[in-house]
């Protein structure tokens, strides 16, 4: 979402990338190209290149329009569908991920950046990949859509970075979760609340459960995001919060929680979890 910034987990390490134009046919065009290159700058920076297991991996996108005209950029569905990412795992295997697609209402992808202005957005890479184990991961990505500046099509040359996933650190996880939950509670807009809640929902660890509960009952209209995060954790504590939310006055929240519990009930082999769900569904 536009201009969203989260408190960093550590120092930021980044790689600036300047766009280059496709055709270069003459000295005059080369001169024009140099002018074009200085007019639009895309940079990517890892919020933290060293994170514990289950802490979300975030790349910060910044686009600076140094030209004298407004520039339109299409970032795709939810302003992330036009990005292409690939990840090389610690064992050396590499995967390239398809464009982000989801059903339902989406944020329009077209972004207008006025002359002299910039646009900033967090890209939550966990939406493409889970980072399920410690190790060193090689990240590559770029904006797939061409960008037209002064009648010329330019392409993003992208980024190439390394992120190190360390051992699980319960204290660090709790600190990240607390920061994100506080951002939801103190946000001044739905967009800010939703982005913080989304990031928290990708902390796939039992530590996140009490913080997802805070978000679920925060009254910031992010109940579906919190419920999805709890469903993905699906341990007894998460199931307990989902059961509690069956009595929430919001019909949508209780319906979503019920559906999540029914899915967990079909998938789990944990007898205690299944019993908790049986009792909760019988009472509501």
Description:
This protein has 284 residues and is of the alpha+beta class. The protein folds into 2 domains: 13-166, Sandwich (Immunoglobulin-like); 170-283, Leucine-rich Repeat Variant. 35% of the residues lie in helices and 26% in strands. The strands form 4 sheets. It has a 5-stranded mixed β-sheet, with no helix packed on it. A 4-stranded antiparallel β-sheet has the order 1-3-5-10, with no helix packed on it. β12 (147-149) and β13 (152-155) form a beta hairpin. α4 (209-216) packs antiparallel against α5 (223-233), α5 runs antiparallel to α6 and α7 runs antiparallel to α8. The protein is globular, with a radius of gyration of 21 Å. Residues 1-37 have low confidence and may be disordered.
């Amino acid at each position: 979402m536009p201009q969203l910034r989260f408190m960093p987990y550590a120092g930021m390490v980044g790689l600036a990338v300047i766009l280059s134009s496709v055709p270069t046919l003459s000295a005059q065009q080369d001169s024009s190209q140099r002018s074009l290159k200085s007019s639009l700058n895309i940079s990517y920076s890892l919020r933290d290149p060293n994170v514990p297991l289950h802490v979300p991996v975030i790349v910060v996108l910044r686009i600076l329009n140094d030209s004298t005209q407004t520039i339109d950029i299409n970032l795709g569905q939810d302003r992330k569908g036009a990005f292409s990412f690939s990840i090389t795992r610690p064992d050396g295997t590499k995967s390239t991920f398809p464009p982000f697609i989801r059903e339902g209402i989406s944020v329009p992808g077209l972004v207008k950046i006025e002359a002299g202005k910039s646009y900033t957005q967090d890209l939550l890479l966990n939406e493409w990949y889970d980072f399920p184990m410690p190790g060193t991961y090689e990240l590559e990505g770029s904006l797939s859509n061409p960008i037209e500046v002064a009648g010329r099509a330019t392409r993003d040359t992208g980024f190439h970075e390394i992120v190190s996933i360390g051992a699980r650190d319960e204290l660090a996880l709790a600190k990240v979760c607390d920061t994100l939950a506080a951002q939801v509670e103190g946000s001044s807009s739905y967009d800010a609340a939703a982005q913080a809640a989304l990031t928290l929902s990708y902390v796939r660890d039992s530590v996140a459960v009490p913080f997802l509960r805070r978000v679920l009952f925060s009254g910031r209209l992010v109940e579906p995001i919190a419920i999805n995060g709890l469903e993905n954790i699906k341990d007894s504590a998460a199931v307990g919060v989902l059961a509690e939310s069956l009595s929430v006055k919001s019909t949508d929240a209780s319906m979503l929680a019920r559906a999540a519990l029914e899915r967990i009930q079909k998938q789990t082999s944990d007898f205690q979890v299944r019993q908790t769900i049986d009792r909760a569904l019988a009472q509501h």
